[in-house]
Amino acid sequence: MEVISLNKKIAENILPHLENSIPEGVVNHHTSYYTVALEGWRRGLKLTFHNSKRGGRVPSKAHQYTLSDGTTSYRFFCARSSYVSEETIKIAENKTLAYEYMRKNNVPIPETKTFNFSKTSIENICKFGSEIGYPLVVKPTNRGGGKGVFTNIKDENNLIKSLTSIRDDFNSKNVIIEKYFENAVDYRFYVMGDKVLAASKSYSSNVIGDGKSNIRELIKIRNREIKKNVATKSRKINIDDNMKDFLKSQNMSLESVPLVGERIFVREHGTYLGDRLNVDCTDDIDQKFKDYAVQALNSIPGLPCGSVDMIINEDINEGIVNEINSKGEIMMHVLPFEGKARDIPKAIIDYYFPNASRDRNENFYFEFKPIKDLFLTGVADEIVVPQIPTGAEYIKEFTLKGNNLGSSYMRRLRRRAALLNLIGNIKKNDEGNIQIKAIGSREQLDDFEIFIKDSKLRRSVLTDFKGSMLSEFSGVSNINFEII
User: Fold this and answer.
1) Which CATH architecture has domain 111-179?
2) 394-483 architecture in CATH?
């Protein structure tokens, strides 16, 4: 039975400079590339987003971005840069090739073999499965993120169903069949050179006991926590017959009341892969597994950094490497569901741009949803994000009263604010007055104030104007100037 402390600070699972800085539209896997792009942009690099697939509805494939310091430029896909060659990517992303390279480098990998469906019948693939012995794992060679992976296959009937699904539903020409590593938990390591920067284990859906709530009630509590984390908010725990059967196999039910701090798994490991919850374990993992991860990454020629997936049987403290991810999806490290967040984006920018400023401007972030929307509608194929403000920024608030201060008047003010590169918003309060929050340099704010006082439209009449004292801005804001 695992017991965890309920007194740990929840805040440790988010980096302080990302709190209040991840906007709407950045969820789940988006966080892997948004946080790297944000880190580079906040440190003064030029950021350009590219739509490589017009109208594409898979943002991780459709949206790429370039970071540049004026001398050096890299185009990024997720957290992988264009520094990595196509040949290296081909080796790393093809599971069969990656296994061959790791085997030569004495990396512990599963007993495995790759088959081509056009050359080998499902019947003969099943014969190999029987030879290495059940339970088994089968997976396509060209998919990642657990897609098309079938685990803990215990008999030939289920093996045939799994192979047929990979061939027909996932349109895979090749399949890997391997010995299932029993009673194991999935781990992911982020490796850079000869060092593991982060390690995370993927638990199946679980709840933590408080000594008074039953499992049904704890699932509701857990789902609220899952929704709060942008990296896990789609991983809601749903009650179904499989869950009830799994709990019954552990002599429990939805009405059972776990002890304080007791972790109860409501799904079997290796199932419901898209719903797993990540726990940081960088400081606790056995060094030998870190060594395996470094050894695995360095087996792939030309790969400076990336993710290494491993399955580890915690009872016997043994594990094997089962995949290398050159894209380096880092959301589970940057925004773990439990445990300490790791600043992988900083390490990536430090690596690729060693001369970039080490100081990040943490006061501003950029919205991502408008970029996605423009790409999806085909309006833009390339979008340059305005450079982050430099120097001291100040904030001033204005309240305007008058007649016919409607939408045309507010749009006029917004256009002027945009021309002056101001940041902030404009809105009407409950009394019908206009309230403005504007952030910028002293000169920009002075020019904007003069414009407001002098601005006239045919029917708009300003009868009262109030401006707050100028103060240095120390909060967090997006870089838009918007009408709310």
Assistant:
1) 2-Layer Sandwich (3.30)
2) 2-Layer Sandwich (3.30)
Beta bridge partners, 434, equal: 400, 428
Nearest to 43 by CA among 364, 286, 429, 383: 364
Alpha-carbon gap, residue 24 to 14, rounded angstroms: 16
CA distance 43 to 60: 23
The residues, ordered by sequence, that sit 6+ positions from 193 with a Cβ below 8 Å of its Cβ are 304, 305
Task: Say if residue 244 is exposed, middle or buried (CB neighbours under 10 Å; 0-12, 13-18, 19+).
Answer: middle
d(CA 343, CA 208): 27
Q: Name the segment(s) of the chain with CATH classification 3.30.70.100.
A: 394-483
Domain with CATH 3.30.1490.20 in the chain: 111-179
| Contact of 478 with 371, CB cutoff 8 Å | no
The encoded tokens of residue 322 equal: 């089962």
Angle formed by the axes of helices 407-419 and 442-454, to 10°? 150
pLDDT on residue 58: 47
With 0-12 / 13-18 / 19 or more C-beta atoms within 10 angstroms meaning exposed / middle / buried, residue 171 is: exposed
pLDDT at 7: 52
What residues does 264 pair with on adjacent strands?
207
Give pLDDT, residue 212: 96
From first CA to last CA, the distance across the chain in angstroms is 51
pLDDT digit string (tens) for 222-271? Answer: 999 999 998 898 899 999 999 999 999 999 999 999 999 999 999 988 78
The three-class DSSP label of residue 304 is coil
Q: What is the pLDDT of residue 29?
A: 81
- The low-confidence residues of the chain, meaning pLDDT below 50, are 9-10, 58-60
Strands 423-428 and 481-483: parallel
Spell 279-304 as b/e; 16+ CB within 10 A means b. bbbbeebeeebbebbbbbbbbbeebb
H-helix segments, 107-213 = 122-132, 156-168
The predicted structure's pLDDT at residue 2 = 62
What φ, ψ does residue 396 adopt, rounded to 5°? -145, 140
**Token pair 């060092």 is at which residue?**
195
Q: Which two tokens stand for residue 203?
A: 């638990």
**What are the tens digits of pLDDT across the range 135-181?**
999 999 876 666 788 988 999 999 999 999 999 998 899 999 999 88
Which pTM does this prediction carry? 0.87
pLDDT of residue 59: 46
pLDDT for residue 441: 95
